Amino acid sequence: MRPGPAYKVTHAAGSIRYLAPARGTVRARFRITEEQISAIRAATDGGEKHLPQLSADISDEAGRTVARVTHTLYVRKKKPA
What we know:
By secondary structure, this protein is mostly beta strands. The protein has a single domain (about 5-75), classed as Hotdog Thioesterase (Thiol Ester Dehydrase, Chain A). The protein is about 15% helix and about 40% strand. It has one helix spanning about 35-45; strands spanning about 5-20, 25-30, 55-60, 65-75. The protein starts with 6 loop residues before the first strand and ends with a strand.
């Protein structure tokens, strides 16, 4: 996520739901839309923390979904120096 240098973004929590055994390389791609980034900026504009959740499927080399991941971010606008 790239809300900009005025924001602190860290990992807060995560969970994985395993659906099938996987062998070899697996991949996950988190996608966040401009609308989601705008909503996060609006939620943190006054200095409040925000904990958005992102989800992604984990796929094996054959393209089968083997797990689902939920990732919670910690986002807060940095205080002026």
